[in-house]
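Structural prep section.
Before we set up the soaks we want a predicted structure of the protein with zinc ion in place, mainly to decide which crystallisation condition to try first. Input record follows.
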Amino acid sequence: MKQELTAVSKRQQFSYHFSSLMWNVLDWIFPPDCPGCGKQGERFCEKCKNFVQPLTDPLCPVCGEPGKSNAVCDDCLSYPPGFDALRAYAVFDGPVRNALHRLKYRDDISQGDVLSKFLFDLYSCLNWQIDLVTAIPLSKERLRSRGYNQAERIARPFAFRINKPFYANAVERIKNTNSQIDLSLFERRENVSGAFYANSMVVNLKSVIIIDDVSTTGSTISECARALKEAGAEKVYALTVARAPLKGNNTRSG
Ligand SMILES: [Zn+2]
Ligand SMILES: [Zn+2]
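Run finished without errors. Recording the tokens verbatim:
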């Protein structure tokens, strides 16, 4: 049966408030430290927030790549991506980089809520009409070894903040892709080709937003968006916390 989408469900509200309460209790017992400067008792201190470098205009209106003007970039003209628009909140550097690293490799899942606030601030400046939120999925193998999907840890509180439902099952990864770190733009596109399958029961005729932690070329998000469009999604937007340069970065994202 087709799923009807409304605002955030009671269950989603309960789950968000319950996890916020649990994190506050845990913060009281085991005080957190800021990923930027190590200050005790803060999940991301105000001083380090000032060191975050937001990505602002001029940007390509499609992929969000910083450029000299707000015109569509050459890459988007020659190889149009699967998404309608992608934006990243900040440069992949400093405290944001540390926070994402903690979230991904050190099980510091409380950072997901902090980072979702950055995405909320960015989303509030964009005129995107959204029906539902999803996250770039991990393969089953990677999910089993890590225990959680870091993108989902950001996407769930983000969905709550914008009062839209989150669907983990909107899209799944059907191919276990290699790390994108040392790949060129072309190799990245090849690597993720056919990696996703979207659930038309959830996304048909909907406007979907995909959340990920870091984007580099946007090829992973583009391929995921393509699967969502094939399943009937009308619009596909994407937000990531950070954008990393293609060369010399050490993150997995594509
Ligand atoms: Zn700090
Ligand atoms: Zn572009």
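Observations: The domain at 51-243 is CATH 3.40.50.2020 (Rossmann fold).
Flagged for discussion at group meeting.
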